[in-house]
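Customer escalation, tier 2.

The customer says the design service returned an amino acid string that "doesn't look like it belongs to this structure." They asked us to rerun it and document both sides in this ticket. The original structure tokens are below, unchanged.
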């Protein structure tokens, strides 16, 4: 299959370039920038993109593209630092920055650049997206400017041979006007790559990679109930003989209502034969009794989770061979050193401290089949693998579960009240067509009682806060502007159906200053 190789020099947006190209239906692979392209994929390479980098070409240890890459007979596009290193190599010069340029910048075409295939369909003075320190100061004779900034700095160039192109701006960033069009012009128009990539292809490829890695050994996945680990489990079941696949799920009792059954049901539907569902509800409840401090709750849950996990693995004599984790690209810490070094990094707060993960990693026994994907691609993969929408489309959920949404003490009754209120909220958002528009929505049980009237008597009911936020990655968040009518109807349903709840409030705090979770 035609492949566009994206060479990673450490930019935050490298994977996004690969992702945009896959969105065009063209297969793309992100590889470490400083290494040669592996022999095995070379015949398929239709074009190469050199990513940006936090480094400057003036730094002595700045990453450099391997010479062999430039002798491939395919089009090359340098983006930002990628462009600068190409120009330096060819004898041009790059000026050190006195300050960074960041944000939208209009570009004008030069030398009939608007007629160049890279800019087909792009209008003059389009708003590019810049994020760079250094910039090109002079071009070698073998290059020509296609577009420049309003201060005359080269922003797009081509080599006279036409094989090498470069742009100073970032077409992969959504704020870049015509960004996708420019990538499409390069990938499809200039490289001639065929659009034959789809999620089905990914499954075929992942299947092969998983089979090669696992052989006839067994593999364990710890299922959290979240999308990523469930999709990982589904992928293993698809790729391997279900006899080789052990899925372990610890029911802490702090899951959303019905979640354990849904996870069980969907994995059984996919043919899981070794599904180890551990009922640890009582243990968690008793460990958390009389604990109100949020950090203490997290500690207790994290520690107990690991204890249960180790005890159960030992008792069942599983977990001897490989461990598969649902690590996504965005879970990997951005080290700025290229994807080679990313492999060090691990996922959730449970796993970070888990001796099992450290031990498996040490022994090279970890596989992370989702690590090239973005969250919405994982959801798409889950659908292709046959997971139900309720599982693949679910909002993110914190590791400590409802414990951090029950402010104050945790009791079996308070868990039940929150689960019921939360289930109604979710159900209403789904039926109103709002669930998929919201990054995260959930109910929180507050440690206050407020007065109300039930029939003719005064009653002290619990207070539930509803939260709904828009966000791209959970790092910052805006309040979802819920219609008053929706809020009133949802509130009425909660107070009618959950008799312990006497009052419902809507949380109108963005992040920052608030966090998404209450604890
Ligand atoms: P905050 O509350 O920090 O949450 O704004 C940001 C995102 O992270 C999730 N979250 C957690 N996830 N363990 C997790 O695995 C945790 O302890 C935890 N705390 C918050 C939260 O749901 C949101 O998506």
């Amino acid at each position: 299959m035609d492949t566009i190789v994206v060479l990673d020099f450490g930019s935050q947006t490298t994977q996004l370039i690969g992702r945009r190209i896959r969105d065009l239906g063209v297969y793309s692979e992100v590889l470490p920038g400083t290494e040669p392209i592996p022999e095995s994929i070379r015949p398929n390479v239709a074009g190469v993109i050199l990513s940006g980098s936090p480094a400057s070409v003036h730094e002595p240890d700045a990453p450099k593209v391997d010479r062999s890459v430039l002798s491939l007979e395919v089009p090359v596009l340098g983006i930002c630092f990628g462009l600068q290193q190409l120009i330096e190599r060819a004898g041009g010069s790059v000026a050190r920055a006195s300050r960074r340029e960041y944000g939208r910048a209009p570009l004008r075409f030069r030398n009939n650049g608007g007629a160049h295939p890279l800019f087909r369909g792009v209008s003059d003075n389009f708003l590019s997206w810049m994020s760079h320190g250094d910039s090109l100061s002079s071009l070698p004779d073998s290059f020509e400017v296609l577009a420049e900034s309003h201060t005359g700095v080269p922003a797009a160039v081509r080599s006279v041979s036409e094989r090498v192109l470069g742009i100073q701006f970032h077409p992969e960033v959504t704020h870049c006007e015509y960004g996708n069009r420019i990538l499409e012009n390069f990938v499809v128009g200039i490289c001639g790559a065929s659009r034959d990539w789809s999620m089905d292809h990914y499954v075929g490829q992942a299947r092969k990679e998983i089979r090669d890695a696992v052989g006839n050994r067994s593999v364990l996945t710890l299922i959290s109930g979240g999308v990523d680990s469930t999709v990982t489990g589904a992928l293993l079941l698809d790729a391997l003989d279900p006899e080789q696949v052990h899925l372990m799920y610890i029911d802490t009792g702090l899951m959303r209502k019905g979640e354990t059954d849904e996870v069980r049901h969907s994995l059984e539907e996919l043919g899981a034969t070794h599904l180890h569902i551990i009922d640890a509800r009582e243990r968690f409840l008793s460990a958390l009794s009389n604990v109100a401090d949020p950090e203490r709750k997290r500690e207790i849950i994290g520690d107990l989770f690991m204890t249960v996990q180790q005890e159960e693995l030992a008792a069942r004599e599983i977990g001897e061979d490989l461990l598969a984790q649902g690590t996504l690209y965005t879970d990997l810490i951005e080290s700025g050193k290229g994807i080679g070094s990313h492999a060090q990094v691990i996922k959730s707060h449970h796993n970070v401290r888990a001796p099992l993960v450290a031990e498996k990693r040490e022994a090279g026994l970890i596989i992370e089949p989702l690590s090239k994907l973005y969250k919405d691609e994982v959801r798409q993969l889950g659908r292709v693998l046959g997971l139900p929408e309720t599982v693949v489309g679910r909002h993110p959920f914190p590791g400590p579960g409802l414990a951090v949404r029950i402010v104050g003490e945790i009791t079996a009754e308070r868990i039940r009240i929150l689960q019921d209120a939360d289930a109604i909220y979710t159900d209403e958002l789904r039926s109103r067509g709002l669930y998929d528009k919201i990054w995260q929505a959930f109910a929180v049980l507050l440690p206050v009682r407020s007065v109300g009237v039930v029939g003719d008597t005064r009653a002290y009911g619990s207070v539930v806060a509803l939260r709904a936020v828009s966000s791209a990655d959970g790092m910052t968040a805006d309040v979802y502007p819920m219609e008053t009518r929706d809020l009133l109807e949802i509130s009425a349903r909660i107070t009618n159906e959950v008799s312990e709840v006497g009052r419902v409030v809507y949380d109108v705090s963005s992040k920052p200053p608030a966090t998404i979770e209450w604890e």
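Tier 2 assessment: The sequence is consistent with the input. Residues 298, 348-349, 396, 398-400, 440, 474, 511, 515-517 surround xanthosine-5'-monophosphate (CB under 6 Å). The chain has a mean pLDDT of 91. Sent an explanation to the customer and offered a walkthrough call.
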